Structure formats: structure tokens, C-alpha cells
Amino acid sequence: MTELHRNLIAGEWVGGDAVPNINPSDTNDVVGNYARATKADAEAAIAAAKAAFPAWSRSGLIERHAVLRKAADEITARKEEIGRLLSREEGKTLAEGIGETVRAAQIFDFFAGEALRLSGEAIPSVRPGIGVEVTREAVGVVGIITPWNFPIAIPAWKIAPALCYGNTVVFKPADLVPGCSWAIVDILHRAGLPKGVLNLVMGRGSVVGQAILDSPDVDAITFTGSVGTGKRVAAASLEHMRKVQLEMGGKNPLVVLDDADLGIAVDCAVNGAFFSTGQRCTASSRLVVTEGIHDRFVSAVTEKLRSLVIDNALKQGTHIGPVVDQSQLEQDEKYVAIGRDEGANLVFGGERLNRETPGFYLQPALFTEASNQMRISREEIFGPVASVIRVKDYEEALDIANDTPFGLSSGICTTSLKFATHYKRNAQAGMVMVNLPTAGVDFHVPFGGRKGSSYGPREQGRYAAEFYTTVKTAYTLA
User: Fold this and answer.
1) Is 290 contained in some domain?
2) What is the C-alpha separation between 401 and 318, in angstroms, rounded?
3) In contact, 142 and 95? CB cutoff 8 Å
4) Are 16 and 129 within one domain?
């Protein structure tokens, strides 16, 4: 019988009713059974976090450092095991699953170091005889709501800084991928976290997520997911005057200029648009290509797509695994149909595939002759579907790249220092890539976007302190 993985509330593993976690590469494979929390469970977790906050927020730096470092070390030691779990439940290739697991370990290691580097400022007052201290303190109880596309990295880059800066946590992972979240919470629990500091409540967003939104005892919420849900998180948080941090996706452009190195441009486009099955908020779903290189670029990308192996994520030699579930597969197919109806030319892919194991396999889809006003160019598809938009020159390419309600990641392929420099300055995005895929970022620098992509302080790196702490200014008469 498959083991039941329970929720963690106030240091105890609790919960009964559970649902199976299904492998999208093989729907006959049950990854595990994971408990679904109730509204009462979520409320108990919030109460536990609130009770644990005073002691944890004043805990010693060495204690926080030790917990985070132990977690980093165990994740590293178990990277193949956890990476395989990730690939089974989400559908990333095994190499991608292991790579994401290593990144999670690096994030915990980074914030273990940050726990020892907490600092403030001592500033002279403009008034004689008065000293001023500026320090950072923990915000309080942090609600963490994560998506399914990065089952361990995104929880890591939210949980690690929350604990580093002395907050307590109520964590709700995506219902589709509870396995990696359960593993990371189990590791932190055994690393020595006091009871109630980290609470795991798995389950439906409409139940568990809503309980977090409704609670006046949640002091901050960090959310990654859809624009619609992000707006609801923001609206609900305003009532309680809580801090909120939202990451809500993108429709990222990759500009390819006539002077680009064709090989680099093709690698950037294929990696950014189609790897991880296109299920990345930083994916290059709009390929904005100037006329002089357009035909050669399309031909080379199409040829590259023909060579890719789409199969079981755990099978050696697989380049692209399945999409995450039936609903996502149907959404991707819907947008392929929309693209055709809008008049774009489907030059490759877009068909369901049958493999040895039953799963949600889709051949990557590439459209040409797309315009930037088509739905496939404006709405986030979140699958292996990309459209090529032909433009006459750099100026038009920049205008098209910026003409989007999103602003997460933006890329350009060029050998011109002039165009690269201008693009970095004028691209309306939180992250800009030159001769690199739009997807793929480091763990120690800020992550986030502009416009409809992000709201609130940046994630990751030292900038995480802006969200997970509050600033206090103290005056002392000497």
C-alpha cells in the first residue's frame, strides 16, 4: 500500500483524507498519496505559526543558520532521489529535475549564509546627542502559495528567506505536485525547526488558500501563479493591510536580429520556448525576428525541433517530457486551434503523441506569420507553443517586444554591442538576456518583473529581505 504523506501542523504530522499524486509521464504510476488539508487544518496551522513567531523571531543566528545549512546538505546528498521524484510528479526530464533540486540546495545554502550576515546601520542624528539605529525585523506569519511548474525551487526560494529572517510559515503547495514540497518540509522539520515555525497544509486552493487569504493573523503572503488568482490574493490582502508579493507569469519576447549568430539564436529559442515543456513563466513564447534572418531562423528551428525526443521524463535520451496534466494538455491544444483560426501558419507540431506509457504528450508547436495582436501572442499559454513575428528592423522589434501586458523576461540575440546595450536599457522587463535563453536565472540575484508579471518586492538573493523583513528606526538620547 502506498504510504500516506500527512500535513505538518504545530510540529505534528496530521491528516487523513488523501488523493493520489499521478505521474504525467505514466498515468498508471502513483507517485504517492498526499493528505488534503481542511479549512480547520489551515486555521490550526496559522494559529501554530502565530504562537511560534515570538520565540523564532528572536532566535539565535546560529540556530537559523544550522537549520538552513542542514537542509541544504541533505537536499544535495539526495539530489538524484529528489530529482527523480520531481520528474515523476511534474514531468520535467530527469536532468532538469536533478538540476532544479541542486538549485534548491543552493538557495538554502545561500540563506544559511545570509542568516549570519544580518546587519543594520548606526547613523548620527541631525540633532546633537542623539543616536539612530536602523534595523530589520521579521514580518510575522508568512503565507506561502506556490505553483506546480517548479515543485522544489520556488518553495525553496520562498521558505528559505522567510526562515532566515525570523518569520514563521504556513505553506500551501500546488495541489498537482505535493511530493517535493512534502520532502522539503520533512527535511527542514528533521533539521531542528521548533514546532509551529514551518507548517505544511496541502490541498485545494479554494479551501486551504482561501483560509490563508481570509485570516487576519497572516502578516504577509507570497504567491506565484496565474494573473487572475494573483489579483484575488492582492485584493484579499488589502483588507488586512498585509504585505503581498506576487509573481504572475509572462509573455516573453526573444528578439533575433539579422546580425545574430544563427546557432546561438536557435539554441536560445528552442531552449527558452520548449524545454521544461514550455511550462516556465520565463519561456520565450514570442520570437520576434527581423526579415534578413527570418527564413533561415525558422528553417533551423524547425529542423532542431524535428530532432528532439518527446517521451517519458525518466527515460534516457528524452529532451522534453509531457505537459503536467490533462487540463494543461487541453489548454495547449486550444491555443494551437486559436492560432490556426487567427491565421498564423503552424509550421511544426501541435499534435498529441502516443508513447510506450500513457501520458500527456504534446509535440512542440511553432507558428509563423503571427502578429503581435493575435491571442497566441498576447495570452500566456504555458506550454510548448511559440509564435514567430516577422519585423523589418531593430526599432520595430523593440516596439513589438515591449507591446505586452507582461514584463518578466526579455531577450535579444545580436552581435552588435550597440543594439545589445540599447536593448538592455529599453526593454520593459525585470530581467534582460543577451544571447541567452529568456528562461534560466541565478539563485543569488533578484528575480521578478514589471507590469502584469510581478507585484511587490523582488524574490531571491539579498533583495528578498525587502519582503521578508520590516524596517525599524530607533532613536536614543545619549
Assistant:
1) yes
2) 32
3) no
4) yes
Provide, rounded to the nearest whole percent, the portion of the chain with pLDDT above 70: 100
CA distance linking residue 249 with residue 223, whole number of Å: 11
Do 131 and 475 contact (CB within 8 A), yes or no?
Answer: yes
DSSP SS3 for 327: helix
**Full domain range(s) for residue 429:** 253-434
Question: What pLDDT does 309 receive?
Answer: 98
Residues 237 and 366 in one domain: no
Nearest C-alpha neighbor of 313 from the set 149, 100, 89? 89
Q: Which of 247, 333, 380, 459 is catalytic?
A: 247
Could you read off the pLDDT of 112-135 as tens digits, one per residue? 999 999 999 999 999 999 999 999
Mention every residue, 6+ apart, whose C-beta is less than 8 A from residue 179: 5, 21, 31, 32, 34, 85, 86, 88, 89, 151
Contact 353, 329 (CB under 8 A): no
- 3-state secondary structure at position 413: strand
Question: Mean pLDDT of all residues in the chain?
Answer: 97
Amino acid at 241: M
Same domain assignment for residues 270 and 386: yes
User: Is the pTM here over 0.90, yes or no?
Assistant: yes
402 confidence band (pLDDT: 50, 70, 90)? very high
- Asked whether 370 and 321 are in contact (CB, 8 A), the reply is no
Q: What angle, 0 to 180 degrees and rounded to 10, lies between the N-to-C axes of helices 79-90 and 178-190?
A: 150
What is the DSSP pairing of strand 220-224 with strand 243-247? parallel
d(CA 264, CA 315): 27
- Pair 197, 166: CB distance under 8 Å: no
Q: Which of 281, 380, 413, 459 is catalytic?
A: 281
**Is 268 a residue of the active site?**
no
Of 443, 462, 345, residue with least CA distance to 99: 443
Which amino acid is present at 92? K
Q: Is 281 assigned a catalytic role?
A: yes
Q: How far is CA 27 from the centre of its chain?
A: 25
